[in-house]
Amino acid sequence: MMPAINPAKIGFDFDGVIADTAESFLRIACEEHGHCDFRLEDITHFEVENCLGMSVETVATVFHKILKDCLGTGLQPILGALDVLSELAELVGTVTVVTARPLREPVLDWFAHFLPQKVLPAIQVVAMGDHDDKPRHILAQGLQWFVDDRADTCVQLQAAGLQPLLFSQPWNRDCRNIPTVSSWQEIRDLLSLVQTPSIF
Asked: How far apart are CA 88 and CA 191, in angstroms?
């Protein structure tokens, strides 16, 4: 049984946890590069070029576009994410997002577009630019729990004495040794948040 989670001690990854980056990737790969035969379930590896028939260059081009311009590429929130983040912000005052993205501003712009103005001051974004350096930044924020979709990151978090929750995605379903969550409703339940009517 999973121990109780202190809502003030949990942080979140952005891509694949809060934002539906895979949907944007597949859509842009089809519309701009002619790769239209893939579905979400086909992304069975975090490094997309290892499971889809796309060149490293094409994959990098698509991801770079999403990283630079979340709004322009139509990046959408994962179901329930914004409701739970808003409830959490009201409860604890600060919600920390630690992303391996190198650019912070596009993420802040994305939150400014999707979240109510009153919630924005509570959203703290740390863009650290390196998938393998997350534990240091998460520890620096005083967090204990962290939700991420990259299995290797979760293993690193465990090694650093942190408590990872793996957000279930097709590219991490072979991972058996890390507690998983499959939806934001499940995260809400683990945090014992009181559900309020959706504002989105």
From this structure: 9
